[in-house]
Amino acid sequence: MQMYTDPKGEAYRQVIDLAIRNSEFFILGEKYHEDLEPGPYAHVLEALEPYLDKRIVIESHHLTQDVMALRNIYRSHAFYAAGTYYFFRCCEESGAVLKQMANRLADWVYPRLPEDLCFLKADGEDYLYSVVHEEMYGMEVTAEEAIALMDRITGLFLKVDAHRDLDRLLDDAIKHQTDKLSISGHRLTELPQRIRELSELRELQIFEQDLCRLPEGLFELSKLERLCIMTAELENIPASIGKLSNLRQLTIGCGSSDRPVPGWKPKPKEAISLNRIPPEIGELEKLEHLSIRYTSIHELPLELEKLKQMRTLIISNCMIKQKPAFLRRMKLQHLTVSPNFY
């Protein structure tokens, strides 16, 4: 059962207590990072030394062979790279160290800490897993157990079938104040205004073929850093986009379908309603990445030049025939402005 995001604070501590009670070992990895110094976390391994059961080394030149051998024994997400893997016994004392050293699962990553905290049950299967670089977290529990756990632990937000109902998804997202959410497959034409209640949201992905307009409530999410919208056609980018002062990455793709059927085709790009980028885009001082694809946009606003943090600009499959001169003054690492597919 995957998590939308990893629990943090009090939720993290409750999840650690839960995993300690339901697991035999937990694993931490000291992965081999070429050309990098060892992480400054020797004190963590020293604090856990009394609970060390064993260590397993995966050599880089035997990587595939060793990983496959371990996965035949342990059905765990822990093993995927060369390095040293430490198995620690689960007990109240070792759990206390985990709670002292971190505030969320995402903290278990090089260089600050050993990587990818995973808990193994007696049968060698994961109870709780994390692969931090992939932002992948989860628990091996049933749907009924997941719902009961979410009722009990505020901040533990698991992906369950009940979230096919948008109201239930938003109810749980608001209750757990998630910082990451994906909305897809709900046949939406508009987002509910209650999206504004997700005040802790930092990443939002929307893939809804019929979505055509964005509510004002979306632009009240002041902590939002990454916003991705995929749809068949978007009417416009509202001027309120300028309110998202912490936005670092904005991706918009038209001509997309979340439920393609035989014969489905997007509108010709010249028929797509989205034909301009509002000048308020220039108010997004932290924006680093802007990607807009398959639209009838025919010119770029001069206000883009205000974006001093911008490193990637992709405006592709649009109606722009020539790059404006001001783009040459921007310190971009990657630039694509093209009427063709990128």
Task: Indicate the topology.
Blueprint: H1 10-22, E1 25-31, H2 42-48, E2 52-58, H3 63-73, E3 83-89, H4 92-101, E4 115-120, E5 126-131, E6 136-139, H5 143-152, H6 166-176, E7 180-184, E8 203-207, E9 226-230, E10 249-253, E11 289-293, E12 312-316, E13 334-338
Parallel strand pairs: 7-8, 8-9, 9-10, 10-11, 11-12, 12-13
Antiparallel strand pairs: 1-3, 1-4, 2-3, 4-5, 5-6
Care to describe what's here?
This protein is an alpha/beta fold. It folds into 2 domains: 10-144, no CATH class; 179-338, Ribonuclease Inhibitor (Leucine-rich repeat, LRR (right-handed beta-alpha superhelix), Alpha-Beta Horseshoe). Helices cover 18% and strands 21% of the residues. It has a 7-stranded parallel β-sheet with strand order 7-8-9-10-11-12-13, with no helix packed on it. The protein has a 6-stranded antiparallel β-sheet with strand order 2-3-1-4-5-6. Strand 5 (126-131) and strand 6 form a beta hairpin. The radius of gyration is 23 Å and the shape is elongated. The two termini are 35 Å apart. The mean pLDDT is 94. It comes from Paenibacillus phyllosphaerae.
Short recap of the structure:
With 342 residues, the chain is an alpha/beta fold.
Question: Number of folding domains?
Answer: 2
Mean pLDDT equals 94
CATH A-level architecture of the largest domain: Alpha-Beta Horseshoe
Percent in helix:
10-25%
N- to C-terminal separation? 35 Å
Q: How many DSSP E strands?
A: 13
Order of helices and strands: HEHEHEHEEEHHEEEEEEE
Structure class? alpha/beta
How would you describe the shape?
A: elongated
State the CATH superfamily name of the largest domain: Ribonuclease Inhibitor
State the low-pLDDT regions, or none. none
Round the Cα radius of gyration to an integer and report it: 23 Å
CATH topology of the largest domain, what is it called?
A: Leucine-rich repeat, LRR (right-handed beta-alpha superhelix)
* Largest sheet, strands/sense/barrel: 7 strands, parallel
Residue share in β-strands: 15-25%
Keywords: Leucine-rich repeat, Repeat
Protein name: Leucine-rich repeat domain-containing protein
Organism: Paenibacillus phyllosphaerae
